[in-house]
């Protein structure tokens, strides 16, 4: 069988990675452990978040592949990219409900995305110069710390040690929105750097 | 309580500290040793000196107050310190390579080599002011201690005498021996702090940590949101990268014997700093649970309630003095170096000559004396202003884009560095007076970062347009 070009191999691996990651994450981070047989219905119930997570990783992969190809993106494409990520962030924000399990889900979401970015940058998944890499590592660190703080509070609510984390409820969706939009700005900046280096 | 035993223990700690600082070594103190003591210290020494600098008098009282008022918020600050110092550890290799490349002694030299003179002067001026207030903050802590003990006992003279003795010791070893003596004494000071912490921890665990600390806490104490979620988010965003713009952190990278000693020193210091944040926060929470009055004196109130043994109490108060001195000596050193760079520009350029070095050493010592006196006056006359500016210490983050330029050549830009900092300073100045003095730094830092990127992009575009025009002209 003919071997796929290397870039397509990477693409396939990364798409599967994104989807697989989304499914495992969705299954593992529900507050009440559920039998494996009903996880598809669980995913269906939280379809919005599931899809957004998968989309997020997919977009990330797409972006990284553009960078690997060292193709400078045109401005309209960069803007489109940012808008998609902003909309995505808004979807995640609006999907968040009021139950303890949703708190846990949201906080875990941030931690997982943070760890994903940290590993991506440290492992050199993004072919970017040192500056954006440092920024990316810092951004990932912030996501993990903020996510850990929210997760701690969510666990307190889930364990009924505190009645409700009302301040978290107010701030957490905005934190997700800001962090994901910062990521969008980061994408713009990275591409700008690459354009400059080509010029 | 036996006052003689208590006083003897505290005085012994202070005398031992001076003795350690004044121990002579064969090496003579040059300006290089005074400001950097390069390639000298092993990882464990580095870890102790970093911990000593971070655990100051302000932390002793301030973090206890956070624990009292906001519970686990102090734990989150500890985790932020852990992550921030680990980030420095991760980048220590790069930082060392940059310093080694030009045989630079400090971050000032590094900035000198990569940016215009105006950027360096601006960095030194802002850092000098902020470190001066940090130094004054240590004296404020000493004064607060003296006032607290005076109110508690009939011996009003004794606490002031101890405070004066501690303050006086700062006019000797840090001024004579510079960074080398700072580090030498930091080892002793951290050992005393660890010993006192052990004594407190034994009592805490004997009392039953859960009953003593967590039993009476409110939900706000448990969630860490007593100061608002924005406080935590702001601390994560602004405190984590703040280590990269601190002169004392770069000094420790330079003074490490090798890169791996630097890396391991920072890793251990990160863990130790996190431990002390947890420790002082727990003391504050313990104070809250015990029902002692709150405020800045919460930790001291608890210690005076729980420890009546003069030996133990003397050791803990001695540790408080050690904490103050361990930070103050570093800040004296740093302020004098900033002043030397600001006022002796020519001598700094010739610092590798014998004459230039001698002149710099002499003037640095003089500046150290003058600035220590100024900070004492500030602490006595305007403790509230000192408190406000210490709270706004993160204003040094105005220089973060500039320092990032040291790591990333493409990002480096003198014009952007100069004007973005000025924009940030103006915004800080306005917001400090008309808005919230302790939060004014946050919008200023954001504005500085954004203006750095914009100015850099604009100048870059202009340069490109000029290049195109020149090329057309030639054709």
Work out the number of β strands of chain B.
Answer: 0
Count interface residues per chain for the largest interface: A-B, 31 and 29 residues
Mean pLDDT across the residues of chain A is 62
Largest sheet of chain B: none
Number of helices of chain A: 7
Spatial shape of chain A: elongated
Q: Whole-number average pLDDT of chain B?
A: 88
* Spans of at least 5 consecutive residues with low confidence of chain B: none
CATH class of the largest domain in chain B: Mainly Alpha
* Main sheet specs of chain A: none
Output the radius of gyration of chain A. Answer: 18 Å
Helix content of chain A: over 70%
Q: What Rg of chain B do the Cα atoms give? A: 23 Å
Distance between the termini of chain A: 41 Å
Number of domains of chain B: 2
Q: What would you say about this model in short?
A:
The complex is a heterodimer of chains A (199) and B (475). Chain A is mostly helical and 199 residues long.
């Amino acid at each position: 069988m003919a071997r796929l070009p290397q870039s397509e191999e990477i693409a396939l691996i990364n798409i599967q990675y994104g989807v697989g990651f989304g499914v495992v994450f969705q299954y593992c981070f529900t507050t009440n452990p559920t039998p494996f047989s009903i996880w598809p219905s669980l995913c269906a119930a939280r379809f919005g978040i599931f899809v957004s997570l998968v989309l997020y990783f997919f977009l990330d992969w797409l972006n990284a592949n553009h960078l690997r190809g060292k193709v400078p993106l045109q401005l309209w494409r960069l803007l489109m990219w940012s808008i998609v990520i902003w909309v995505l962030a808004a979807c995640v924000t609006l999907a968040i409900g009021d139950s303890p399990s949703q708190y846990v889900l949201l906080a875990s979401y941030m931690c997982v995305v943070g760890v994903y970015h940290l590993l991506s940058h440290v492992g050199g998944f993004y072919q970017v110069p040192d500056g954006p890499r440092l920024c990316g590592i810092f951004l990932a660190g912030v996501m993990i710390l903020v996510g850990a703080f929210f997760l701690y509070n969510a666990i307190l609510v889930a364990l009924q040690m505190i009645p409700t984390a009302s301040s978290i409820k107010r701030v957490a969706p905005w934190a997700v929105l800001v962090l994901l939009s910062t990521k969008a700005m980061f994408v713009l900046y990275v591409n700008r750097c690459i354009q400059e280096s080509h010029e | 309580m036996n006052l003689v035993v208590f006083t003897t223990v505290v005085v012994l700690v202070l005398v031992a500290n001076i003795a350690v600082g004044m121990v002579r070594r064969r090496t003579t103190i040059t300006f290089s040793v005074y400001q950097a003591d390069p390639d000298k210290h092993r990882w464990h020494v580095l870890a102790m000196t970093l911990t000593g600098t971070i655990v100051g008098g302000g932390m002793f009282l301030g973090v206890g107050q956070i624990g009292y008022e906001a519970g686990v918020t102090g734990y989150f600050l500890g985790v932020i310190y852990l992550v921030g110092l680990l980030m420095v550890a991760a980048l220590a290799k790069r930082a060392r390579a940059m310093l080694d490349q030009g045989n630079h002694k400090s971050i000032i030299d590094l900035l000198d080599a990569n940016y215009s003179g105006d950027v360096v002067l601006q960095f030194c001026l802002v850092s000098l002011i902020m470190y001066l207030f940090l130094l004054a903050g240590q004296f404020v802590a000493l004064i607060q201690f003296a006032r607290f003990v005076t109110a508690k006992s009939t011996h009003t003279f004794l606490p002031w005498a101890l405070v004066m003795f501690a303050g006086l010791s700062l006019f000797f070893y840090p001024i004579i021996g510079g960074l080398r003596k700072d580090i030498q004494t930091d080892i002793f000071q951290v050992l005393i702090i660890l010993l006192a912490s052990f004594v407190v921890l034994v009592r805490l665990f004997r009392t039953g940590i859960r009953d003593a600390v967590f039993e009476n806490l409110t939900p706000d104490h448990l969630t860490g949101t007593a100061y608002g979620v924005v406080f935590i988010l702001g601390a994560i965003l602004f405190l984590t990268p703040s280590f990269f713009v601190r002169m004392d952190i770069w000094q420790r990278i330079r003074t490490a014997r090798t890169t791996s000693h630097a890396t391991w020193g920072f890793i251990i210091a990160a863990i130790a700093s996190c431990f002390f944040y947890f420790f002082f926060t727990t003391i504050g929470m313990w104070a809250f649970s015990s029902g002692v009055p709150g405020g800045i004196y919460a930790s001291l109130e608890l210690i005076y309630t729980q420890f009546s043994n003069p030996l133990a109490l003397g050791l803990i108060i001695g540790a408080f003095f050690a904490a103050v001195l361990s930070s103050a000596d570093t800040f004296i050193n740093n302020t004098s170096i900033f002043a030397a760079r600001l006022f002796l520009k020519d001598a700094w350029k010739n610092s590798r000559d014998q004459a230039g070095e001698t002149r710099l050493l002499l003037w640095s010592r003089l500046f150290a004396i003058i600035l220590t006196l100024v900070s004492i006056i500030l602490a006595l006359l305007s403790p509230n202003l000192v408190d406000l500016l210490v709270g706004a210490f993160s204003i040094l983050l105005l220089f973060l884009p500039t320092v990032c330029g040291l790591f990333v050549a493409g990002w480096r830009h003198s014009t952007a560095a100069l004007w973005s900092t000025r924009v940030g300073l103006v915004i800080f100045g306005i917001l400090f007076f008309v808005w919230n003095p302790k939060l004014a730094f946050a919008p200023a830092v954001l504005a500085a970062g954004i203006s750095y990127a914009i100015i850099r992009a604009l100048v870059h575009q202009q340069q490109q347009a000029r290049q195109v025009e020149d090329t057309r002209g030639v054709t």
